[in-house]
Amino acid sequence: MFESLAEKLEGIFKKLKGRGVLNEESVNAALKEIRMALLEADVNFKVVKDFIEDVRLRAIGKEVLESITPGQQVVKIVHDRLVELMGSTSANIKFGSRIPAPIMLVGLQGCGKTTTAAKLARILSREKRVYLVSADVYRPAAMEQLAVLGRQIKAGVFDAGALRDPVKICVDAVEQARKEGFEVVIIDTAGRLHIDDLLMEELRKIKEKVNPAEILYVADAMTGQDAVNVGSKFNELIGIDGVIMTKMDGDARGGAALSLKAVVGKPLKFVGVGEKIDALEVFHPERMASRILGMGDILSLVEKAQATIDEKTAREMQQSLRKSDFTLDDFRNQLRQIKKMGSLKDMIGMIPGMGKIKALKDMEPDDGELVKIAAMIDSMTQKERSNYLIIDGRRRKRIALGSGTTVQDVNRLLKNYIEIRKMMKKMNAKGGVKALMRNFPF
Ligand SMILES: Nc1nc2c(ncn2[C@@H]2O[C@H](COP(=O)(O)OP(=O)(O)O)[C@@H](O)[C@H]2O)c(=O)[nH]1
Ligand SMILES: [Mg+2]
C-alpha cells in the first residue's frame, strides 16, 4: 500500500530539496508531478485538485521561497496538507453515555465486516466488556464465523437461536448484553454485492431500534474509489460516524484512504492490516502521511531541528555536512546542537533505519558525558582533530591525561566518532539522504 506513491513522491522531493533556491516555476513543476502521482494512486480527482491548489497557495510565498531550505519547506507543506486530508488527529470511537453502547458495522459483502467486528472487539476489550452479535441471517455460516472468532478472543457472543429477523436479533442482543453487564455491543450486519434498497431498509430499521452510539462503515481498500463512493451512499442513506478501512496490507494504491475524509466527510478510525485477529490498528493521519512520504517521523525531526537551530548555525551545519569530511571538530559541534534538541536517542529513533546503529544507541550523552567529550576533543591538537588516524596509543594517553579522562574514554569516543563518520559518508554518498539531512546534526 502506498509504495508506488511513496516512491514517486520521494523522487519528486529529492529533486526539490536538491535545489538551493526555488522559484514559482520550479514549485509549479513539482506540483504537477505530485498531482500525477496522486491521480495514479487513485486519489479522487476533485480531492487532488483542491490539494494541489492549497499546497500551491501555501508554497508560493516569500517565507517559503526565500527561506534557507525552500525544498524542505515545500515537503513540509505537502506533509501537513496530507495530514489534514486524512483528518489531522486520530478519531476515537465515541461510546456515548448509554450502557451497553451499540457499535454497528455496515458495508458491502466481503469487505471484512465480520473479521473486523472480532478485531475491534479484541481491541476494545482491553478496557470494556465487549459483546458480539451477528445480524447476518442470509449467509449460511455468517453467525458461526463470528461465534468462532468471538470464542478466540473470549468476547461474549449472542446466540440468536431460531431468530430470523435481523432487527429482532439486534434488539434482543442489546437487551441480553445489558443483563449480562456488557458495556459495548458490536453489531455485525449483512452485506450485499451492491447497495440495494432492501439492505438499506434493514440497516435503517436496526439503527432506529438500537440507536447505535456509532455506525462504522467498513471499506475494502482494494476496491479503490468504489469504496469511497459506496461510503458516501451509506452516509447519505443511513448516516455513518466513521470508517474502518480493511486490507490495507494488500497492494491497493491507497487513493481510497486518502480521499475518504474529503469526499465522505467522515474520519478513518481504524485500518485492517491483515487477516489475523490482531491485525487492526488505530489510524493515525500523521504517521500515515509520514509513511506515504517515506520518511518515518522525519518531519517532526525537521520541526524540532528548525525550532532549535538558528539560521546561522544551520548554514554552518549545512556546510560541514556538505564537506566530504566530518572531523572531530564537526563532531563536537554536532553534539552541542543535539544537546539543545533533547535526547539523542529520541532523535536517532526518529530517523528511519538509524535506530539500528549500535554506536548511536549506546551513546546518549548526558551533560557530564558531553563535557567529557568536549574536554577530550579540546585536548587534541588541531592536527589530530582533522585527522583522527594519527591518534595512536601514545596520543590517546596524552589526551586522556589532558582531559582528566581515561584511555578507555578516549577509545570509546573515537570508536563512536568513527562509526558516525562512516554513516555520514554513506549518507553523503547516497545524496538523497544527505539532502534530506541537510538540516540535522546527523
Ligand atoms: N488481508 C486482509 N484480509 C482481510 C482483512 N479484513 C478482512 N479480510 C479478509 O476478507 C475476507 C472477507 O472478510 P469477512 O469479514 O468475512 O467480510 P464480510 O463479508 O464483510 O463479513 C476474509 O477472507 C477476511 O480474512 C484485512 O485487513 N486484510
Ligand atoms: Mg460477514
Overview of the structural elements:
58% of the residues lie in helices and 9% in strands. It is built from 22 helices and 8 strands. Strands 3-2-4-1-5-6-7-8 form an 8-stranded mixed sheet, with helices on both faces. α10 links the parallel β5 (214-220) and β6 (242-246). It is elongated, with a radius of gyration of 28 Å. It starts with a helix and ends in a 5-residue tail after the last helix. The model is unreliable at 355-359 and 430-442 (pLDDT under 50). The protein binds guanosine-5'-diphosphate and magnesium ion. Residues 113-114, 136, 142, 188 line the site of magnesium ion (MG).
Short précis:
Helices cover 58% and strands 9% of the residues. It has 442 residues and is of the alpha/beta class.
Q: Could you say what the CATH architecture of the largest domain is?
A: 3-Layer(aba) Sandwich
> Can you tell me the overall shape?
elongated
Strand arrangement in the largest pleated sheet:
3-2-4-1-5-6-7-8
pLDDT under 50 segments (min length 5)? 355-359, 430-442
CATH H-level homologous superfamily name of the largest domain: P-loop containing nucleotide triphosphate hydrolases
- CATH-derived topology of the largest domain: Rossmann fold
N to C succession of SSEs = HHHHHEHEHEHEHEHEHEEHHHHHHHHHHH
